[in-house]
Amino acid sequence: xxxxxxxxxxxxxxxxxxxxxxxxxxxxxxxxxxxxxxxxxxxxxxxxxxxxxxxxxxxxxxxxxxxxxxxxxxxxxxxxxxxxxxxxxxxxxxxxxxxxxxxxxxxxxxxxx
Length: 113
Hints:
Blueprint: E1 3-10, H1 16-29, E2 35-38, E3 53-59, H2 62-70, H3 72-82, E4 86-93, H4 101-112
Antiparallel strand pairs: 1-3, 1-4, 2-3
Organism: Brevibacterium sediminis
Domain DUF1330: 2-95
InterPro entries: Dimeric_a/b-barrel, DUF1330
């Protein structure tokens, strides 16, 4: 099942190391089947607060996303970002094709009794 690495980049300030990180990141996830879905695009906050930027990378599955994250190639460049940008990053699995949210709603109702 497709998995996603989602980053919320906050307090971004241009820096040469960040440019190097951006230049090199693609080559770190390509061997794991990763590809950008969102990168450097504008977003519109519909509710709440979301300062900063969003990055989303898709992987064929969560195992490959974790292998990318743990890979020497990615770990080598991660400090280029983390020294200059406050970031929250999660890896999350997508839902199966045909997912019906009513099933989740019913499970919640069952838990509530």
